[in-house]
TrEMBL record:
<dbReference type="GO" id="GO:0030133">
    <property type="term" value="C:transport vesicle"/>
</dbReference>
<comment type="similarity">
    <text>Belongs to the BLOC1S5 family.</text>
</comment>
<dbReference type="GO" id="GO:0031083">
    <property type="term" value="C:BLOC-1 complex"/>
</dbReference>
<dbReference type="Pfam" id="PF14942">
    <property type="entry name" value="Muted"/>
</dbReference>
<feature type="coiled-coil region">
    <location>
        <begin position="72"/>
        <end position="157"/>
    </location>
</feature>
<dbReference type="InterPro" id="IPR017243">
    <property type="entry name" value="Bloc1s5"/>
</dbReference>
<keyword id="KW-0175">Coiled coil</keyword>
<protein>
    <recommendedName>
        <fullName>Biogenesis of lysosome-related organelles complex 1 subunit 5</fullName>
    </recommendedName>
</protein>
Amino acid sequence: PIQPIIKDVGEIYSRLLDHRPVIQGEIRYFVKEFEEKRGLRELRVLENLKNTIFETNERVLPKCEQAMQDNLSETFKKLQAANAMIHRLQEKECEARKLQADKVMAREEKCIAHWEEFMKEQRNKRAEVDEEHRKAMERLKEQYSEMEKELAKYASF
């Protein structure tokens, strides 16, 4: 009596909760569907992809490399020529700056020499003026001294 009930419960359990047989059937159906319908299409896609890669590696890539190599060597030569021209321009500019600096330095030296000469003349002129002033002062002192003597003569009256 209990044995048949356990068997029935096990059968009910497996029908309600054990989905493995159903899932295995679905898996087998999916694999069969994939192999039959998609398998050939995927194989063709992979074959086309393989042919495209082979074509690219064998023909397109070498052509591109050669074109790039030719253009790069030509571009490199142009860059070298441009670099040489820029270098010459820099040298000319450097020489022009040096020449300009030399001219400025010569002008500054000339101005300094002029200034020193001017200051020397000013000192000489000041010395002359000072000497003239001293002599004029002496003459005036003598003149006033004589005038005082003359005045002293008249003051005695």
